[in-house]
Amino acid sequence: MKKLLIWLPLALFLLVFALVVNGLIEPSDRIVRSAMVGKPLPALHLPPMLADRPGIDTKTWPKGKPRLLNVFASWCIPCVAEAPQLMKLKAAGVQIDAIAVRDTNPDVLAFLARNGDPYARIGDDRAMRAQLSLGSSGVPETFVIDSRGVIVDQHVGDIREEDVPKLLAALEKAK
């Protein structure tokens, strides 16, 4: 019995080592997906972030054409990285609305002046209530909204060049 106890620390070490190596080789998916995909947009009533365009209000949400709803912030570095792709999507005729999270009017204006302005509407979500009701866990995130106002897809993280065709296909499918 004593001889077995001598080997116990080594066996425990090897077990922990194997678990760590397995986690490094096959890391788990840590992306938090929204439970709202497949459901209608939740009731959102966000005041306009900027004076020159409306905020986000699901009572007056445009129907009949799919759209993107981008959750972003001026202080978000990945949001800067995705800005060129959003401008490409806008140039392709995609309607893009936005929710500005924990932001201010001057900061959003400066962000849009530096990085381009693809948005038709920008809602002010300083308290992050709308972001949470969408099931969004961070910024940036982009939701594909179909022609009836149903969330049909979610893109977590910044939109990269290789993601643009996928989003265009999701929008085409959402008609």
Number of helices: 5
Mean pLDDT: 91
Question: Which residues sit in consecutive blocks of at least 5 with pLDDT less than 50?
Answer: none
Q: What's the total count of β strands?
A: 7
Gyration radius from CA atoms, angstroms: 21 Å
N to C succession of SSEs: HEEEHEHEHEEH
Structural class by SSE content? alpha/beta
Q: CA-to-CA gap between the ends?
A: 71 Å
Sum up the overall morphology in one term: elongated
Strand order of the largest sheet: 5-4-3-6-7
Assess the beta-strand content as a share of residues: 15-25%
Helix content: 25-40%
Major sheet: 5 strands, mixed
Question: Quick summary of this structure?
Answer:
With 175 residues, the chain is α/β, with parallel strands linked by helices. The protein is built from 5 helices and 7 strands; from the N terminus they run αβββαβαβαββα.
Describe the protein:
- With 175 residues, this protein is α/β, with parallel strands linked by helices.
- Helix content is 37%, strand content 18%.
- The protein contains five helices and seven strands, in the order αβββαβαβαββα.
- The strands form two sheets. Strands 5-4-3-6-7 form a five-stranded mixed β-sheet.
- Strand 4 (96-101), helix 3 and strand 5 form a beta-alpha-beta unit.
- The longest helix has 24 residues, at 2-25.
- The chain starts with a helix and ends with a helix.
